[in-house]
Write a structure and sequence with these properties.
The complex is a heterodimer of chains A (128) and B (739). Chain A has 128 residues and is mainly alpha-helical. Chain A has 8 helices and no strands. Chain A has one domain: Serine Threonine Protein Phosphatase 5, Tetratricopeptide repeat (Alpha Horseshoe), CATH 1.25.40. In chain B, β27 and β28 form a beta hairpin. The chains are: A mainly alpha (128), B alpha+beta (739).
């Protein structure tokens, strides 16, 4: 491969990285430290954009939930945790965190339902 | 005589049965895999993508079935006695090839021993070709136009000649002296219309060759076709005319006026028509003709485009599946040859699938679980294993994949022309010189694939890194697939970056002794590394300035020529201690050029092909082990390739030769005259660090098969008395000239 082609390929990749950034700016932003995001005034909008995506990794959702909790933005935290639970329905820890967030948001019925389901699961599982 | 009685089996009965069982098993496993894929793994969420990949796999299944069908039985041929009175015409077709190139082909044609008339069919209407024919004493035929290209040119000569059979050669395909003697005997069967021999190429630095001198192995892209498919087709009486290196019966062609002209691949078209009329074909897998393969990628692609387009278009004119007169096996064989050219469709799917997966995150396979992996592993294992076994060391999967990558776009272009047509199917003469422009453009499709693949890998990595996606396993599999394809693409792109071939003639690996006549007598012996009609690479231990004029004596087997040469370049010191110099011969007379060419075609080419026909290392290891277990515990001393000039003094005089190998107990050399076994001679070897002399006993003398008496040589094995001196010699001379 000659140098001209290699340079063209590098330019292409650089452009691609730019496109990726524009396309996934919100997700990329969530890779900043949690402390920085807590102080970021644009966090709610960025988090909404992330949560509106059909595909996003659990790591990013966890970051949204964590930062939302630290910013006392319970409704955002609930949405993030709901996404996590929907992608991992058997994850007890995530469900309990969701129940806690629902309770904090005043959605007691929903929180209670989750707690009951988990307790029921414990009973059926022989008190695991 | 019935030509069918000349057919022989190449494998033992046990091996034949084993290979058939393996073939059937592999086909059954592939079929089972396809059924499983169809039932359980079609991804409904990416249905079009999933089905496309599935169809590509089905294409592969039929490719495998056709391939295994064609090589179901490999057949050789017993050569029948040559008939006494057969009128033979020899056609050498040319359009714009160099006269120097044509000269050796015409000389080869004229020098064939069986009585014949040689005609040069010049569609270029060139005065210099006419002069060449006058000089060499053959007949010159031309015409006023170029209608129907090569086939039209051929038919023009067909109308003006009257031989019972016609041997036909392209301008760069040089026949051996015994070509007609080996092929004409089959025409004693009145039903035989075609005798085809393989097309071998002696320019081993061509695009389609990969050579390992160290392991003495060679890969040629067409080896599978000429070593497996054609002997397999011969079993089904479906071997076809390949355009050059064939003998055709005039009476079979007469009703057609010669070759059929409806396509740009008149060879297969004509063969198909003749076989549909009930004529037989014969394939004789012997090295009787060698030619030139394309040197650069654009010439290679142009040749493949012509073959693919022409062969596909035959379906429209004479569909082997529906035309009358063919057996079922012949229909399958001919259809398989056409189907082969559609592989571009499957390949483009496999090349673009990984980028699509990496960009979109969608997979063509649903339920990618342990069960699928087990089914896939069984399928892949049986595919690779059976291919290796049935290809008998000829088919190499990675090399085949590289050339599939090289050809995919060309084949798609041919398929497009087949479906949508074009203005006219013009015949493009394949350039064999190389060094033509447009190499980068020729690999543009591969560059596009590289760009797609690299950007998809970057996109996927960014996605995983920033948390857009978390499918590490899926991305990992697609990445592995993409990297494999990327490696193939880079190799193909490397084809276009090969150094431009500037030489006028092909240099062949040839170690001949050379005397430098204008240096002091003591130690003026050198050796060539390669040789052509225009020059050589000289291995010489001392310094020689670029531009220096040398007086040389080249020892070409039994003959020698003296000429001047100019040092054109210094290649640097070899690992063996020699220094390589590029020499250009100066003002060689036509007779000397012919003498060098004769030595190359009659001695060097056969030796190269014999030398590079070693089996693969597992087979070599198995044979060595079997030899040990079988009782021959005393293995011969390990031999090392060594191409050193040697002066041999024997009772009747002396000659110069080059060694072929050294061991701790002796050496072997190619001698221009036979030596008496048991006789004691003196050998004086020249190495990069000096001369070494010793008495030696002749222990083995074996003639090297050669149809030309003037170039007959002998492979001589010598035992050196005093092992320690030979060990010292090996260390001193570091004989790795050919490595």
């Amino acid at each position: 491969m000659n140098r001209r082609v290699a340079v063209m390929l590098l330019v292409l990749v650089a452009g691609e990285i730019g496109v990726f950034y524009v396309e996934h700016r919100d997700v990329v932003a969530m890779n900043r430290s949690a402390d920085a995001l807590v102080l970021d005034a644009r966090f709610p909008d960025t988090a909404q954009a992330v949560l509106a995506r059909e595909r996003v990794s659990r790591r990013v959702l966890e970051r949204v939930a964590d930062v939302a909790r630290r910013r006392h933005d319970v409704s955002l935290q609930v949405v993030a945790l709901e996404r996590i639970v929907s992608s991992a329905p058997g994850d007890t820890e995530a469900r309990l965190r969701l129940a806690q967030a629902l309770r904090d948001a005043g959605r007691l019925d929903e929180a209670e339902r989750i707690y009951r389901e988990e307790l029921q699961g414990l009973d059926e599982g022989g008190g695991r | 005589m019935n030509a069918d009685t000349t057919l022989t089996f190449l494998d033992s009965p046990a091996r034949r049965v084993t290979r058939k069982v393996v073939a059937l098993l592999a086909i059954a496993i592939y079929l089972g895999y396809l059924v499983y894929r169809g039932l359980y793994t079609i991804n409904q969420e990416a249905l079009v993508f999933s089905l496309t990949v599935y169809l590509a796999e089905i294409h592969g299944f039929f490719s495998l079935v056709f391939y295994y069908f064609q090589i179901w039985e490999l057949r050789g041929r017993r050569v029948p006695p040559v008939p006494a009175e057969l009128a033979v015409d020899v056609f050498v077709t040319t359009f714009n090839e160099d006269v120097d190139l044509l000269r050796q082909t015409v000389r080869g044609a004229i020098n064939m021993r069986y009585p014949h008339r040689t005609f040069v069919l010049d569609d270029g209407r060139r005065a210099e070709v006419k002069a060449l024919c006058d000089e060499l004493g053959c007949e010159y035929l031309t015409r006023e136009n170029n209608e129907h290209a090569k086939a039209g040119n051929w038919n023009n000569a067909f109308r003006q000649t009257s031989g019972d059979v016609i041997a036909t050669f392209d301008a760069d395909h040089v026949p051996r002296a015994d070509y007609l003697e080996r092929t004409l005997g089959f025409f004693a069967d009145p039903a035989v219309a075609i005798v085809q021999v393989p097309q071998r190429y002696h320019n081993l630095d061509s695009l389609q060759h990969r050579v390992s001198w160290r392991s003495r192995r060679m890969y040629g892209e067409q080896d599978v076709f000429f070593n497996l498919v054609m002997p397999g087709k011969d079993h089904w009486n479906a071997a076809f005319f390949c355009g050059t290196g064939a003998v055709l019966r005039r009476s079979a062609l007469r009703p057609h006026g010669g070759l059929l002209t409806g396509t740009i691949t008149e060879d297969m078209h004509t063969a198909l028509a003749l076989q549909a009329e009930g004529w037989k074909s014969v394939y004789l897998n012997e090295l009787l003709v060698t030619g030139l393969a394309p040197m650069d990628f654009s010439s290679y692609s142009a040749q493949r485009l012509r073959w693919a387009e022409g062969n596909l278009k035959i379906v429209r004119l004479l569909n082997p599946l529906t035309c009358a007169g063919l057996s079922v096996a012949q229909r399958i064989c001919y259809f398989a040859s056409m189907y082969h050219w559609t592989i571009g469709f499957a390949k483009i799917v496999f090349y673009t699938a990984p980028p699509l997966i990496l960009f979109t995150g969608q997979f063509p396979i649903a339920n990618f679980d342990r069960t699928f992996l087990m089914v896939y592993a069984a399928h892949l294992g049986s595919l690779v294993g059976s291919y290796k076994l049935l290809s008998r060391g000829t088919g190499r999967i990675v090399m085949d994949e590289i050339f599939n990558m090289a050809n995919f776009y060309t084949l798609l272009a041919a398929a497009k022309r087949f479906v949508f047509g074009r203005r006219a199917g013009t015949f493009v003469v394949t350039s064999k010189r190389g060094g033509e422009g447009g190499q980068e453009r020729a690999v543009l499709p591969q560059y596009v694939l590289i760009a797609m693949t690299v950007t998809s890998l970057v996109w996927s990595t960014l996605g995983l890194g920033f948390g857009v996606t978390e499918d590490v396993v899926g991305a990992g599999i697609a990445t592995f697939w993409a990297l494999y394809n990327l490696a193939l693409m880079l190799v193909v792109v490397g084809f276009a970056s090969r150094p431009v071939q500037k030489r006028q003639s092909v240099r062949l690996r040839s170690s001949v002794p050379i005397e430098l006549l204008d240096v002091p007598t003591n130690g003026r012996l050198a050796v060539s590394l390669d040789l052509s009609e225009g020059g050589c690479t000289l291995l010489w231990p001392g310094p020689l300035a670029v531009g220096r004029r040398l007086k040389l004596r080249l020892h070409l087997g039994p003959s020698a020529i003296e000429c001047d040469a100019t040092v054109m370049s210094v290649h640097g010191r070899e690992r063996s201690g020699w220094i390589g110099y590029g020499l250009k011969f100066e003002q060689l007379s036509p007779e000397m050029v012919d003498q060098v060419a004769d030595a190359l075609y009659n001695m060097t080419v056969p030796e190269i092909f014999a030398r590079l026909s070693q089996p693969s290392w597992p087979i070599r290891a198995a044979k060595a082990l079997a030899g040990r277990v079988g009782g021959s515990l005393r293995a011969r001393a390990s031999r090392q390739d060594a191409f050193l000039p040697v002066r041999v003094q024997h009772q009747a005089g002396e000659f110069l030769a080059t060694t072929r190998d050294l061991s701790e107990s002796g050496l072997s050399l190619i001698a221009p005259s036979p030596l008496k076994p048991g006789s004691v001679i003196r050998v004086i070897l020249r190495g990069p660090t000096g001369e070494w002399s010793s008495p030696a006993t002749v222990v083995r003398v074996k003639p090297v098969p050669n149809p030309v008496a003037a170039y007959r040589t002998w492979h001589v094995g010598l035992r050196i008395d005093g092992h320690t001196s030979v060990v010292a010699l090996r260390h001193q001379l570091a004989p790795e000239v050919m490595s």
